[in-house]
């Protein structure tokens, strides 16, 4: 396969126009030939998670990338960088000086794909539904600052907040705030299976085999009225078992685009070849990886054990042996490119040191070696995850202070087990709901956090998170945000490892790939089109 590489500078998004057009459903690829996008994301309905595509439940990047195409939100994150902009709404904004009252006016003439009118009552119903169901995925925590939702007429929605929340416009851009039809989504229970309906740019047809969504076909919604220009008539997402199978499909022209998750080897190979049939597009990303601890588990209940692990993990070595230039060390939950970031873990622990780790354990009276199992998912974060955990195992065991086993499980069982506290230590990734420091802290540390973590710090929850949200100027929130990060580095309920870049590979007749992913790893299928090959 011939290849060429297109690498985008991190600042490119800043130069892009915010949105291509408003409410434009004309155009598209025009030839009826669906653009096919490959992914290794697995979409499974199970007894533990029977409603993977319900906006009131879904809370991972794969399912959100299905919902963002079909379920419209009041706000949307812009094409490049910047604050969210109106989507289903015509306008939105705070109407008080304290950032506690937020009002939106819907676009005139909004309709669901089935032709039903979208009203302010539907918005209130959708938001209240997600809050009342309060699914165990933890996604409803994004709406936790809402006190009540009020409507005035058919087009105005007013959110009364419990406390100031400068990040609230971002939260209204996430799928949990998606507008659903009361006829399709019951008020008090989740919608099981793989149906998803809304007023977004596409309608969804799901092909399901053995309880898994294997192909999602998105057809342009003729009733769509919003801020997006839809550049194609039809897009398909096909789920592959692994990156090798996805790469082979691209090679054989069975798919046009390869997205999540390519292997490090595939990325290096594509980047190293400058021929003309396939473009590799590199974009800045905010993906992070970390270990999370069940702080009530006997093996890691003592803070000294968690601190000792933080003291000996060698991030640079881990990255060089597994990911190379595709990742960089991370010393906080907040990535280095986000306002409010602090290198708190490096400030506390410095370079890896077995001697310092031994002193921590001896000082706390912890017997060594500490026996612990690190759990990881085999099919959600890419094929390099196993190698990553083998390297972590080696680093910890080589100190003589730990006796570490590793165990991998498929996401369909791994995720529920982690939430239920069945793992003492396990590896997770985070693709932000929106690009703000709050979204790298509150989902892990606040009440009803998505991890189901028993860790609770009263100062973080009661003082620092609310204080940071009062600051509309996010730079002004840095003091509170830094203190949160310092507390996390000392208590180690989570251990940040690395932050990564993101990539798309596509045949060179596919246009719009430069904008097909935003910094939050949102797949923007409407950007894709079919042009003329090289």
From TrEMBL:
Residues 84-449 form the Solute-binding protein family domain. Its main location: other. Gene3D superfamilies: Dipeptide-binding Protein, Domain 1 (3.90.76.10), Dipeptide-binding Protein, Domain 3 (3.10.105.10), Periplasmic binding protein-like II (3.40.190.10). InterPro entries: Peptide/Ni-bd (IPR030678), SBP_5 (IPR039424), SBP_5_dom (IPR000914). Keywords: Signal, Transport. Residues 1-20 form the signal peptide. Pfam families: SBP_bac_5. It comes from Streptomyces prasinosporus. SUPFAM superfamilies: Periplasmic binding protein-like II. It is found in: Cell envelope. This is ABC transporter substrate-binding protein. The lineage of its organism: Bacteria, Bacillati, Actinomycetota, Actinomycetes, Kitasatosporales. Belongs to the bacterial solute-binding protein 5 family. It comes from the Bacteria.
